[in-house]
Description:
The chain is built from 7 helices and 8 strands; from the N terminus they run ββαβαββαβαβαααβ. The protein has helices at 30-41, 53-61, 103-131, 152-172, 190-203, 207-215, 226-237; strands at residues 3-4, 21-25, 45-50, 67-70, 85-88, 134-139, 177-184, 248-251.
Amino acid sequence: xxxxxxxGAASPGGSPLAGRRALVTGGGSGIGLxxxxxxxxxxxxxxxxxxxxxxxxxxxxxxAARQAIAADITGLLxxxxxxxxxxxxxxxxxxxxxxxxxxxxxxxxxxxxxxxAAAVMRAVLPGMxxxxxxxxxxxxxxxxxxxxxxxxxxAAAKHGLLGLVRALALEVAGRGVTVNALCPSFTETPLLExxxxxxxxxTGRDAAAARASLARHNPQGRLVRPEEVAxxxxxxxxxxxxxxxxxxIPIAGGEV
Length: 256
């Protein structure tokens, strides 16, 4: 649960987020890691929060963040450092036909995708309100905006996450804090690789065919890159995005 070692020097003073402190959940891989890199490159002092200590240590060693905390957001949270930016990217996806999805699957999806998000937001929001400024960005999904077959629990949890974002945005509007959601379509991440493996196992299709079936959801005919999500997250952290609050921004090539 202790913070992993610090790495790297302070960012240049001319960087747009110089002096800002960011906490990135799920920062060991995928979208979270891409966002951590983008925030670090923009000058923020980034702390990662995630379950996999080895991945976190590697991210810090490679300069994606200054430090990391190994913890599970679905359990008892450790004391978190003060932050001006919360980028919540932790999440998980499981698929099953609705009638084969048991209570345990539903609890897992709700715990990590919704309840864990709420717990982290509750932990960092008081400091932001006291400071009179802050940015909270939740990585949701196009599954927060529409339904997909075989992922009812995941879609319900992501819809809940978006509801949380919209409600909290109204609570803190006018107090210097903004709360927004990014809603990417299928994105090139380790999480997607797990989905592809599930499709191949259940359907007998090869990985290339499974990947193509997911890419077809995007009218551009491709998968989203984590760096594209990170670019949108970075925009929401900049002064020019101060009026963007309670938004659900699709990153999906026109899918929704």
